[in-house]
Amino acid sequence: MKDGFRKDFLWGGATAANQIEGGFEKRGKANTDYLQFIPSDKRRVDQATFSQSWESIQESIKHESDYNFPKRRGNDFYNRYKEDIALMAEMGFKVYRMSIAWERIYPTGVDNEPNEEGLKFYDAVFDECLKYHIEPMVTILHYDYPLFICEKYNGFESKETIDFYLKYVSTIVNRYQNKVKYWLTFNEINMTLQSISTCSGAMPDHSRYGYNKEQLMFQCIHNMLLASAKAVKLIHNINPNLKVGNMIWKQLYYPKTMNPKETLQQRFDMNLNYYFFDIMCKGVVPYYLDRYFSSQGIVRDYTNADFKDLKEGTVDFISISWYMSNVSEYKGEPFKPTGLLPDMTRNNPYLKATDWGWSVDPIGLRISLNQIYERYHLPIFIAELGIGLHDKKNEDNSIHDPGRIEFFRENILQIKEAILDGVDVFGLAAWGWIDLVSSSTSEMSKRYGFVYVDADDEGNGTYDRYRKDSFYWYKKVIATNGEDLSNS
Ligand code: BGP
User: Fold this and answer.
1) How far is the C-alpha of 219 from the C-alpha of 194, rounded, in Å?
2) Whose CA is nearest to atom 12 of ligand 1?
3) Residue 488 Cα, ligand 1 centroid: separation in angstroms?
4) Strands (E), 354-481
5) Is the peptide bond before 334 cis (omega within 30 degrees of 0)?
6) Strand partners, 11
7) Strand 380-385 relative to strand 318-322: parallel, antiparallel, unpaired?
8) Of ligand 1's atoms, which has the minimum distance to the CA of residue 16?
């Protein structure tokens, strides 16, 4: 029986290029550069504002100078990466999960030659990590697409995008294979179910083949799953020592009541989550969504060669993000997906929620880790776990964030329980280890970090970094390999 965290457990943190880098003028334009910040009094508290259409992008282009585009600024990592990596080292990080901006390597996504200046930037970042013995783990694509790929090919609606993506993969893996051992093909590949544009780069109103939302969604999903399998094969061909993982938004659904019909809906929702795991981990395309696909007129156009690629391109390890659980409510058949993000009309009375309505469910994490391990027997990396809070910096520059410490304490306890249950968890990257621009709402004020960044939603502030109380707490957790989780 395991007795706790393995000795080489990878403690660390995670970020994404489009939420931290800035350095906007040094790279190609991305879809995320056109996501406008919508102030909190102009939207519902639980409302995500990250979905785009081709029309909204055109509108943003027209208002280039009067709209507020926080993802162009990030938290200024591009200029401060040395200071930030030193802070990670001070906390004792063993791993830093980060993403590469495709448009920094290939500004339009289809250029003949990569941008050497962009390649050098990541060389410098990896060298800095390695200097402190921090293992970089790279997400190849985390929501930012070269705008040209969206404009010309409508993201992953087109098969051509698979080839452009693979060219980009080949460039970065050949370049960094001696610096980066762990690679993730797509961030939260199943987030396409929630927002097609964010995750797959396809704009619903810009479809090349006529508009059917469900068809477009699954066409993108199927092209991305295929691209991922081909990328796994490609990376292993370049260097068999490299480890490739998937990254899936792990969702756990509870039936709303004991009515068996709600359990039917819950099974459907869980299967929508497993669909991605099954294809990426086992290389088999499951049968259980076929009935849903035919009820929605969704066609899956895999050829025999594609099935072979899926079979041969399975991942070496699983990675997940964990933010919340959800509640399945029966509303008749054919079933409709419940969705991934919260809907406050379906609150779980047994759980607390954040100011943004995201339920907090550490036991749900333990259940999920067990479910995945039972099903796939692959090592698991928790690629994102975190809580958005309204933190305040005091006059003496202290930031007291007991809520974050409590959140991590409870979740790490449950990760340990899962390990004692027998699950092989080999690392944890705290999401937004430093404050960054929110993915779903483009706010700076939804803070995740152990490190505070002095910047507001409008981009005012010094962008200087300050250690929060949780910084010292996480440092202690790492130093004791998860043994000392006390609040002090
Ligand atoms: C995940 C994304 C991250 C991150 C996180 C928190 O879905 O992979 O990019 O942002 O969610 O979400 P948010 O920033 O919207 O609070």
Assistant:
1) 14
2) 439
3) 28
4) 359-360, 380-385, 425-431, 451-453, 465-467
5) yes
6) 428
7) parallel
8) 9
Provide the CA 120 distance to its chain's centre, in angstroms.
Answer: 24
Q: How is residue 386 written in tokens? A: 């975190």
Q: What is the pLDDT along the chain (488 residues), one digit of tens a residue?
A: 778 999 999 999 999 999 999 999 999 999 999 999 988 888 887 788 899 999 999 999 999 999 999 999 999 999 999 999 999 999 999 999 999 999 999 999 999 999 999 999 999 999 999 999 999 999 999 999 999 999 999 999 999 999 999 999 999 999 999 999 999 999 999 999 999 999 999 999 999 887 789 999 999 999 999 999 999 999 999 999 999 999 999 999 999 999 999 999 999 999 999 999 999 999 999 999 999 999 999 999 999 999 999 999 999 999 999 999 999 999 999 999 998 987 767 789 999 999 999 999 999 999 999 999 999 999 999 999 999 999 999 999 999 999 999 999 999 999 999 999 999 999 999 999 999 999 999 999 999 999 999 999 999 999 999 999 999 999 999 999 999 999 87
The model's pTM is 0.98
> What angle, 0 to 180 degrees and rounded to 10, lies between the N-to-C axes of helices 469-479 and 402-421?
20
Q: How far apart are CA 400 and CA 406, in angstroms?
A: 12
Show the tokens assigned to 72. Answer: 């162009």
Residues whose CB falls within 8 Å of the CB of residue 431, separated by 6 or more in sequence, listed in order: 13, 14, 321, 384, 385, 386, 448
Rounded to whole angstroms, the Cα distance separating 175 from 140 reads: 13
Cβ pair 254, 348 in contact under 8 A = yes
The Cα-based distances of 338 to 51, 128, 178, 217, 268 in angstroms read 17, 43, 42, 15, 9
Which of 431, 437, 445 for mutating ligand 1's site (highest number of atoms within 8 Å of CB)? Answer: 431
Cβ neighbour number for residue 79 with a 10 Å cutoff? 11
Question: Which of 142, 139, 365, 143 is closest to 245 using CA atoms?
Answer: 139
CA 310 – CA 81 distance, rounded (Å): 37
Identified catalytic residue from 128, 157, 188, 329 = 188
What is the distance between the alpha carbons of residues 1 and 15, in angstroms, rounded to a whole number? 34
Max Cα distance, the chain (Å): 64
Number of H helices, E strands in the chain: 15, 15
Extended beta strands in 304-457, E state = 318-322, 326-328, 352-353, 359-360, 380-385, 425-431, 451-453
Neighbouring CB atoms inside 10 A of 319's CB total: 27
384 is catalytic: yes
Give the residue whose CA is nearest to atom 15 of ligand 1: 440
Active site residue 188: yes
Residue nearest atom 5 in ligand 1 by C-alpha distance = 439
